[in-house]
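To the team - heme C complex, inputs and output below.
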Amino acid sequence: MKSASAAAVALAIAGLSGLAAPAAAQNASAQLLTVSCSGCHGPGGRSPGAMPSIYGRTAPAIADALRDFRDGKRPSTVMVRFAKGYTDAEIEAVAAEIAANWK
Ligand code: HEC
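Output:
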């Protein structure tokens, strides 16, 4: 029973992702990744509070910051833990998305 329902979930997920064109799916995932950034850095990277604002930056500046946080080269309280969840490809995608849209 357990494996049957797992298979049903897998089929449902495969069915859902089959609806989106590959290019659109890629954009969606970069956009989704940046949703979590806005949770702390504010909508569009304009922070309303104590977190630094991150709008108006270039993609390389954001990607370098994320990699440096992740790799422990830049001291941080939160970003080190957060950035560890990102691959290099995801960092590039997030940085490009933010540089293009958070102006
Ligand atoms: C849980 C809250 C949180 C989330 C989520 C978060 N950040 Fe941060 N971010 C911080 C904090 C806090 C700092 C200050 C450094 C530190 O102490 O970690 C920071 C610093 C930064 C900086 C450096 C800012 C500066 O002025 O030097 C960048 C760039 C950045 N974050 C990008 C991102 C991106 C991109 C995402 C999404 C992938 C993200 N952050 C998600 C909390 C967060």
